[in-house]
Specification:
single chain, L,D-transpeptidase catalytic domain-like, 2 helices, 11 strands, four-stranded mixed β-sheet, five-stranded mixed β-sheet, alpha+beta, 37% strand
Length: 172
Amino acid sequence: MKKCASLCATVVASIFLFSGSVQAASNAKDKTATRPRIAIAFARVILDEQRAYFYNSHRKLIATIPVSTGVDDQTPTGTFKVFSKSENTFFTPNPKEKMRWMTRFTVGREGGNIGFHGIPYTVTKAGEIPFPTPLGKEPSSHGCIRVKESDAKWIFQNVPLGTTISVMDSRL
């Protein structure tokens, strides 16, 4: 009986340790899992890098996120303020194009709102079909700044209304 109890305790401990290792490995792969919940004070988007940089109130870099901005220079450059947010939204000319975690900070050439959001998708009988989006590599949007879903949610939760967003062609 003692051998059985000892063996059962060893198996349970092994399962517990293994599941902890899987969780740690999973968190190591997804950097957003370890990102702090913090009020972002400032963000900078560098178009030629296809990256967004997020800073706290002491100008300390908190996160660097790969993005995909607007094709044909459709992402406006300048300094803006976050003015609204939506958990779910759509592209006005085509309501079948949906996005999550929209954080708006300016208006584009065509009059539509521009902001950070998750990769757009359409809903079909087969499920959600995401749009091809080469994050961190090249522009692919109508002007908004596409990020992966978990990054869009993190931005939505940590970038308050009124936060300054600077969009620049390059660092130079």
